């Protein structure tokens, strides 16, 4: 078994291209495929739609830093973007709007996606996917395997090349490791089958969603009638409303249990890639990892 803590010695820095791929992966995961970043596009281009939809760009950037495994608060991001102004509190609303307008036109264009990628490359560290020497020979799959064991999604376990990827736990964790391994290595991996109970994309997923909803509805009805029978509830009494309350609670618990079970049972992996070793070999077969 490989002990992940030993992998700290194989930490390295991201290249700018790696960091850019990671930023794009994070944006895709949180905003959808329709948001495609360009290295030399100002960040304000992507921030303004977020502001219009009442999302906080600084909170998004703080989450991005966490995704890259370092912590920067919203206040620190505001300083980096030169948004901090000690006199803001003393300004009138009109003065604040003028300051914001001035920042958008004069300062914001300086901060491109490339600047953000360069910051990530400086601040964050990544497990090395470089080859290791075994019996005097360089072995790429072994180096990639060690890198996989050092990723956040697998850091708290002990793994061998023969360990099934499903040992990570639920399908969401597997999909997250798969996506991170793809953008770090630069490999083009086959798509994994994500579990989408609420956003079905094919017939099987539609059936699952319907079964999920019917299970919750049936539990609600049964719980309501069971409560009425148990408490002999009369209309306009406190016990009368206990039935719907118990029904909602029971339905919520059942739907939560169903989603957790589905998460554990669902296998998102391609048939040919089932273990850590399989994934390492697949990445190695596509050439040198960590490609710029």
Q: What's the structural blueprint in terms of helices and strands?
A:
Layout: E1 11-13, H1 16-31, H2 44-52, H3 57-67, H4 74-80, H5 93-107, H6 113-123, E2 125-127, E3 132-134, E4 137-139, H7 140-149, H8 171-185, H9 203-231, H10 238-265, H11 276-284
Antiparallel strand pairs: 1-2, 3-4
Transmembrane segments: 209-229, 241-262
Keywords: Membrane, Transmembrane, Transmembrane helix
Q: What do the pLDDT scores average to? A: 79
- Summed up, the domain count is 3
SSE arrangement, N to C: EHHHHHHEEEHHHHH
Structural class: mainly alpha
> What's the helical proportion of residues?
40-55%
Strand content: under 5%
Q: Please tell me how large the radius of gyration is.
A: 25 Å
The order of strands across the largest sheet is 1-2
Keywords: Membrane, Transmembrane, Transmembrane helix
Transmembrane segments: 209-229, 241-262
